[in-house]
Amino acid sequence: MARSIFLFFTVIFLSVFPIVSQATEVNRLLQLVDYVGVDYQKSVSAGKVTNAGEYAEMVEFSATIGMLTQELTDPPAPAILTQQVGRLKQLVEAKAPADQVATLGNNIRAILIKTYGLATAPDHVPDIPHGRQLYQANCSACHGAQGFGDGPLARGLEPQPTNFHDVVRYGKRSLFGLFNTITYGVEGTAMSGFAALTKRERWDLAAYIGQLAVPADAAQRGKAIWQQIKGHPDAVTPGSFTTLSPDDAARAWPGGRDLMAYLRQVPGALFTAAPSPVTYALEKLRASYDAYRQGQGKLAYRDAVTSYLEGFELVEVNLAALDPALKSVTEKAMARYRNSIRKGDALPGITSQYQGLLSLLQQAQSRLEEKSSLTPTAAFVASAIILLREGLEALLVLIALSAFLIKTGRRDAMPYLHYGWISALVLGGITWFVSERILQISGATREVTEGVAALVASATLLFVGFWLHNKTTAAGWQKFIQGSVQSALKGGTLWGLAGLSFITVYREVFETILFYQALWAQADGHSANAVIAGFVAGSLTLVASAWLAIKYSVRLPLQQFFGATGVLLLILSFVFAGKGVAALQEAGKIPQTLIQFPAIDWLGIFPSSEGLLLQSVIVIIAVWLYFKGRHNLPEK
Description:
disordered N terminus, Cytochrome Bc1 Complex, Chain D, domain 2, mainly alpha, 26 helices, Four Helix Bundle (Hemerythrin (Met), subunit A), single chain, 4 domains, two-stranded antiparallel ribbon, about 0% strand
């Protein structure tokens, strides 16, 4: 009973968690690097140890950083990272000046963020008042009501809780470093992680703590600086705001320390609204082009993939509701750019594609920002399309399986089918919860999960379609009837149906949630109500479609029913195969050879030779089945 379900669950988890685990390890590594860079100055001064306990901790952590760096696999740590991590350990052991350790820590942090494409900024305006509430509830017992490290539980702790008003420490600490420390805690100390808080809550808490040491006069000066540079191409971005410390900002911009002081107290000046996915797509596209110009092809390709998966893909449905032609052109241009990067094309060609993409994404940004949000009509249409597009394929599989069980008198087997899709909904909800509160699940992880699930579903549907087609021949039909339905649906087969039901639905659930999150971020007022109305309308449409399909399909004679259902499942196998290959290509896991061929999204047809080759094999099998069936028909 458990073996079939275990197989399907194993496919899902093996495809997701190695990637998620890698992202988690990189974030933990980054948190340790930040911790050493900031706290080393408390343990050493003028080449001498001033705090033996702190220094022992720095030595231990610098060694752990080296070990974790060696364990990175996707991709392996670049030589420059390994070299600088080794240098960090040497500096700590040599009791080097704190500024050298902090500078090297900043360099390592920048390499990690760039190499592994870490998400370094919140997707909302940091809420400092909310952060204050979270601080009082979770941190004040140790760090004190005002953040001076003098809480009632602070006595006897070693090391002592941090004084968040320490100006020296404030100058070396980035908000992203605070966020990681809040998330993971500090091993070997009383500072435990707060992964149970949502990502939004952890960012709000980091924003509150990060502004406690801001001098009032510095913030006033910073406001004037911000008014001068905002909108400039070299101005502060959400990513630089969260990853740079005030000391780093002082080196990056004239008056940068004051500028950072102002933005930490008034983050809404920078985060005027939830960051647009298109803005992120533009940021990663620029990073990709810069990396390619510097000869870093693998990094350029990774950033190009991230630009699409973590940026543009999240608003494709929204843009399609406003300007379908622009959506289609931009999607194809991003695919061409990725593949040109992967093939190592000459820089002039890459530059031309890059400039064209900048223009397309800027057009998309303008269309999506019209009236500051989606219109109610566009929000309704986008919401309904998301549910119908993501749900229809899974629904067709469930309809075919349900009708089959009803038609063959096996209503007692329906619970197995329900176990599958209900489990998929539950696991989808758990996956969303984990991504919100514990781990950051990247777009690449999402696409790999969808791609693997789609290919497994395609293979299973091909097998089931083949089995059903055999029942359309006279001999096959008679053999099926004589063998009885009871023997055709044994325990293992029933759990196989449950597994197919599960994997078909699961591949859609989490992606649907992410698309609705992106849509909701752009909707407000009446548009938000329209999103809900679109979801309801899409749900009702799916339910009505299922009821009508089951009602009328079971009226077909058994032989014709097997034929129609077999054809439907073969078509769905064809669709899933194309979409599975496309998803893995978008995640950068398999090559994509673009050719001149029309794209038909709803049929899973995309202009890549790899996907079309696999679909051609399925078509050949379907044609062979057709002629095989005609050959076996009795002569009249």
